[in-house]
Amino acid sequence: MPIIHVRLFEGRSTDQKRAFAEAVTQDAVRLLGCTPESVDIIYTDMAKSDWATGGKLWSDPKPG
Amino acid sequence: MPIIHVRLFEGRSTDQKRAFAEAVTQDAVRLLGCTPESVDIIYTDMAKSDWATGGKLWSDPKPG
Amino acid sequence: MPIIHVRLFEGRSTDQKRAFAEAVTQDAVRLLGCTPESVDIIYTDMAKSDWATGGKLWSDPKPG
Amino acid sequence: MPIIHVRLFEGRSTDQKRAFAEAVTQDAVRLLGCTPESVDIIYTDMAKSDWATGGKLWSDPKPG
Amino acid sequence: MPIIHVRLFEGRSTDQKRAFAEAVTQDAVRLLGCTPESVDIIYTDMAKSDWATGGKLWSDPKPG
Amino acid sequence: MPIIHVRLFEGRSTDQKRAFAEAVTQDAVRLLGCTPESVDIIYTDMAKSDWATGGKLWSDPKPG
Question: Containing H/E element for E48?
Answer without folding.
Answer: none
